Amino acid sequence: MKIFNRIRIVSAGILISIVSLSGCQKDLLDQQPLTDLSEGAFWNSEGDALLALTGMYNGSSVGTGNNNGNELLILSSMTDDSDYKNSKVGLIYSGYVVSSDAQVAGSIWTRGYRTIFKANYFLANIDKVTMDATKKAQLIAEAKFLRAYEYWQLAMFYGGVPLIKQVLTVDESKTQVRATLAEVSDFAKAELTAAAKDLPATRPASEKGRILKAAALAVKGRLELMEKKWADAAKTYKEIIDLKVHIIDPRYKAIFEERGEDTKETILSTNFIAGLFGNTKAQRNYLPDAYGGYQETNVYEELISSYLMKDGLPIETSPLYNAAKPFDNRDPRLYATVFLPGYTVFNGKLFTRANSAIGTLVGATGYGWKKYATEGYLGDMGSSGDDVIHIRYAEVLLSYLEAKLENNEAITQELLDETINKVRGRAEVAMPAVTELDRAKLREIVRLERRIEFALEKDIRYMDIRRWGIWFTVMEQQFHGMKLTDTPETFTGASVELTGKYRGHLKTINKKGTHKPGWALLPIPLTETQLNPKLIQNPDH
Question: Are 161 and 523 in contact (CB under 8 A)?
């Protein structure tokens, strides 16, 4: 049961007056300290502390009161896997980034600093509360995690940002400058290390949604991967493994639906309650039009082609591949992740070219997202109970292997079996075990495995192609939709590729020449740089 989310319903009105910020459009660093509140009327009990913590969760990057569902859709358009259908947002997230756009530059920044403000205020006042020392330490650890998580998000999207560790006065807020990326990362890692010491490894069902020890360590590991601190990352991920709490679920599709939320594979997620704090996207915006959804994003052929055959070989070399039946005998995760034209049957209806809306949507590819859609769902399409997963144990194992690989440590079959082969070997996937020990070849296998295992999941592909230094390369290409014809020279039904690997495939977006290297980062919001000229804008914006 999602008890912790239900606390928010009761406490919302109180929390607005205690820890929420004004909705005015003003510098998020330019906030008055809450000196007008009666300090004697609050911070008097454990209940007060829990209410304040709940307000911090709500609206954070892992809370329900944010844009998680929409970001999940849009972030795919900052990678080589998928594109957003809406022309404005799609173009922005495909390279045409502008600092004045609230959807792109404002929401992540605003949410981040609002949560940081709440965390700073909480940490400045929690010692006023008399309560059990162990419980208080856990609350402090949760606050430190939420603050560190926002800094991780801000660092990933913007690079170095102002590092605010306490509640500021108005004058102080106008003097803030951008810390270096290393300074932000070091602070976040220190907070996560401290938080992990006091966070529990497991929680009862009544505390579902609250931060676990593995979550703090996993975010710390992401920062270490980003900095290429391979030895540190390997050590951090091994700490999670040694907890012996999380597992690779034998299921795959179910863990992305409400029915699979009992999984021990999930380490960090945003918990939604249908009809109350509902997920507005999972059963509406991802689902193809033919099934009553909006199909707001469209999967590229480049992602489809990257899925291996069930013998573990790529389509170019596997004897199982039949160009006339391209979806037969593929990695089972393909069927769980994508609506495939002429192949996928969903709610008793075949997904076809005709109902995949080719030509009716901007950048439509003929494919659709299936990963988050629930077959037979009868609830409110705009308010489902499907959680958004941020971190899974599969990421821990693959990241641990990558860190060991890049740190030039010994690669053994035992290591492969304890990491990548556990991920590939889940019962519902059962892909052949990896036996490759050559370092260069294994690197490519691990990178492909991450792309397939986490396809269309929040942050991961964007994070990976950024830290691998290939974002600009993979984004500067012609992307394709499904194959429409074997005779492209005479085909008139749509614009198709006439030559090359994707001959006869629907031509979608040609991104060559549309990018600048600096667009791998978002711009600092224009409102922020106008109010505080000391905030230097990111390159190429």
Answer: no
Q: Which residues of 469-503 are buried (b: 16+ CB within 10 A; e: fewer)?
A: eebeebbbeebbbbbbbeebeeeeebebbeeeebb
Mean pLDDT of the chain: 86
Give residue 383's region: left, alpha or beta (phi > 0; psi -120 to 50): beta
136 or 109, which is more confident? 136
DSSP 429-466: T-PPPP----HHHHHHHHHHHHHHHTTT-TTHHHHHHH
Give the DSSP letter of residue 104: I
Q: Which residues pair with 388 in a beta bridge?
A: 270
Q: How far is 451 from 432, CA to CA, in rounded Å?
A: 17
Residue 47 corresponds to which tokens in the numbers above? 């209940």
Q: How open is the CA angle 480-449-264, to the nearest 5 degrees?
A: 120
Please name which of 126, 167, 163 lies closest in space to residue 143, comparing C-alpha atoms. Answer: 126
Helix (H, G, I), strand (E, B) or coil at 353: coil
Backbone φ and ψ for 456, nearest 5 degrees, come out as 65, 20
DSSP for 365-403, written as a single string = -S-EE-TT--TT--S-TTSB-PPEEEEEHHHHHHHHHHH
Alpha helices in 21-132 (DSSP H): 46-57, 68-75, 87-93, 107-125
Q: What is the pTM of this model?
A: 0.91
> For 453-458, what is the mean pLDDT?
92
Tens-place pLDDT, residues 326-340: 999 999 999 999 999
Amino acid identity at 414:
E
Would you state the pLDDT for residue 92?
46
